Amino acid sequence: MAKYITKRVIYMFLSLFLIASFTFVLMKLLPGSPLASAAKLSIEEREVVYEKYGLNDPIPVQYARYMGNLAKGDFGVSFQYKNADVTTLIVKKLKYSAILGAQALIFGTLIGIILGMIAALKQNTVWDYGSTIIAILGISIPSFVFAVLLQYVFSVWLGWLPVGLWEGWKSSILPSIALAMGPIAIAARFIRTEMIEVLSSDYILLAKAKGANWFEIAFKHAFRNALIPLITVLGPVAAGLLTGSLVVEQIFAIPGIGEQFVKSISSNDFAVIMGTTMFFSVFLIVIILIVDILYGVIDPRIRLSGGSK
Amino acid sequence: MTTNMKKLPKDSFERITIDSSHAERISKPSLSFWQDAWLRIRKNKAAIVSMFILVFIVFMAFVGPFMVEHDPEDVKVAHASLPPKIPGLEKLGIFDGVGKLGSKTVNLYELKKVEVNYWFGTDSLGRDLFSRLWKGTQISLIIAFVAAVIDVVIGVIYGGISGYYGGRTDDVMQRIVEVLIGVPTLVIVILMIMIMKPGIWSIIIAISITGWIGMSRIVRGQVLKYKTQEFVLAAKTLGASDTRIISKHLLPNIMAIIVINMMFTIPTAIFFEAFLSFIGLGLQAPKASLGTLINDGYKFIEYQPHILFFPAAIISLLMIAFNLIGDGLRDALDPKMKD
Known about the structure:
The complex is a heterodimer. Helices cover 73% and strands 0% of the residues of chain A. Chain A is mainly α. The two termini of chain A are 19 Å apart. By secondary structure, chain B is mostly helical. Chain B folds into 2 domains: 45-70 and 130-337, MetI-like (MetI-like fold), CATH 1.10.3720; 83-111, no CATH class. In chain B, helix 10 (242-278) runs antiparallel to helix 12. The longest helix of chain B is centred in the middle third of the chain and has 37 residues, at 129-165. Chain A binds chain B through residues 11-12, 14-16, 18-19, 22-23, 26, 29-30, 136-137, 139-142, 144-145, 148-149, 151-152, 156, 239, 242-243, 246-247, 250-251, 262, 265-266, 273, 277, 280-281, 284-285, 288, 307, 309, and chain B through 178-188, 190-192, 194-195, 214, 267, 271, 274-275, 278-281, 294, 298, 301-302, 305, 308, 312, 315-316, 319-320, 322-324.
C-alpha cells in the first residue's frame, strides 16, 4: 500500500509539473498584452511595468521564478485587478464555487442513490424506466442547457428565484440544481447496476432463506455493499462539476472561480489564468488520488496496479 | 410393464436410422458478428428510435440549409428579430409570426412588411435561423466526428503498439500515459484553444489532444488479452508479420469495443465544442455551430426564447441519441450477453 501511494504521489507531481510547464509555455505564446490598458501606455511606461513584473527577463529565468513561486503556493499578481494577489483572489472566490459544488454533489448523489435504488428494487417496472430516463437525460443534456432552462422557467417566467448574482442562499438553488444533474445521473446509473448485481448474489439469497424481511434485505444487506464502489465515480463527478461550474456560474452571474476564469480568458489576465489552471488541476488530481487510495483501503480486493479514471 | 409392452402391436413402431452426418448440422443460418449484433440491437427500441432521430438530424444538417432560400450567414438588418413563421401552421396559432414588440403582441411580419417566411425566425442581425440551425448542426457534427476519428486512430496505434510489443516499449509508453492522464481535459482544451486561432480545426485539435488517451488504454487492454491466445500463436507460427497479426487478427476482434467507445466519444466532443463556444472560445461569427447558436439565443432569452429553443433541443436530442445508441451497442456487442 505504501509503495502504491508513493508511486501515485510521484505521478501526481509529474502531471502537475507538466501542466505547469505547459501553461507557462502557452502563456508566453499567447498573443495580446496582459496589461489592462496597454494601448494607453507609452512605450517607456510599458517598459517600466514590464520591468516591475519581470516580463523583460529571459524566458528561462521567468520560468524558474514561476515554478519556484508555484511550489510556495504563490500564483503571482493579477494584471487586471489593481495588483490583487492571485492566491487571495482565488480564495475569495472559492467560497461561492465551493458552496455550489458541495450542494450539487450532496443533493445530486442523494437523489441519484434514491433513484438508482428504486430502479433496482423495482426492476423492469415503470419506476425503473422513469429513473433510467432521468439518468439518460442527466448524462446527455449539457449542464448549461439545463441552467438556461431553469433560469428561464423559475426566474424569468415564474419569478420565484433570483435570476442571478449572489444574494444569499436563495441564489444558490438554481445553479446547484443545474450542476446536480450530472451527479444524479451518474449515481443513479451506477447504484442501479451495483444493486442489481448485489441482489442476485448468494448472501442475499441466504438472507431471504433465513426469512429476513424485504426492508432488511434492501438496506442492511444490499444497499451497504452497493454503496462502497460509488466513491469510484467521484473523480468523473468532480471533473464534471468543475466543467459545469464555468458555464453555470457565468449564466447565473455567481462571483465564483469559474466565472472569474472565463472573464480572465477574455481579458488575457495571464496570472489569473495560470493560477486558476493550476488550482483546477491540483483539485482534480488530488481528488482522483484520494478516491483511488480510499478505494484500496475500503476494498482490499482491488488490484493496486491499475489506477482508476 | 413387461406385460403391457407385449400387448402393443409390432407395426406401430418404426425403426429410424440416425444419419450421423446430420449430427453436426447447424439449424440456424450462420451469422457474422455484426449480423448477430444487429439481431440483438433490433430488440432495443430506445436504440432504434435514436438511430432514426440521428439519421434525421444528420440528413437535415446537410440538406436543411438548402431547403430555404436564405443563406445562413446573410445579414439583413431590415428582417432582424422576427419570430418563427411557417405557412400552413398559422391557423393553429403557432408559428404565425406573432411576437412581442415592447409590451404589445403584434404580427411582426406585417408590421415590418416582410414578404418571405422565416420558419424558425431570425436573429438580431436578420440571419435566417432555420438554415443557421442546420448549418450549425452540420459543423458541430463534423467537428465531433473528425475529433472522434482522430482519437480512434491515435488511440489504436498507440495502444496497439504498447500492448503488442510489451516489455520496455510498453513500460515507457504507459509511464507517459500515466502522467498525461492526470492532466484534466477541461484545462488542456481551454489552454490549447487560447493559443490557436479560433476555428474548426483548432477546436478539433484541442478536443483530440487528450481524447485519445482513454481509447489507447482500452485498446492496449484488449490487445494484451488477445495476443496470448492460440489464434495469434497460430498466425505467428505460420510466419505472419506483426503488421498482419495486428491488422488482420487483433483489430477485427477489438473493433466492437472501438465502435462502442466512439459512440461515447462523439457526444463528448459535441459537448466540448458547445461548451467552448458558450464561454466565447469557439467559432467566431458569422460561422455557426450549436454552441454559438445557444450562446446567441441565451442573450435574447427574455423576449425571444425561440432563438435558444431550437439549438438547445437539437443538441440535447443528439446527445441523448448518441448515448442511447452507445448503450444499445454495448449491450448488443457484449459477447457475454449472447442469446
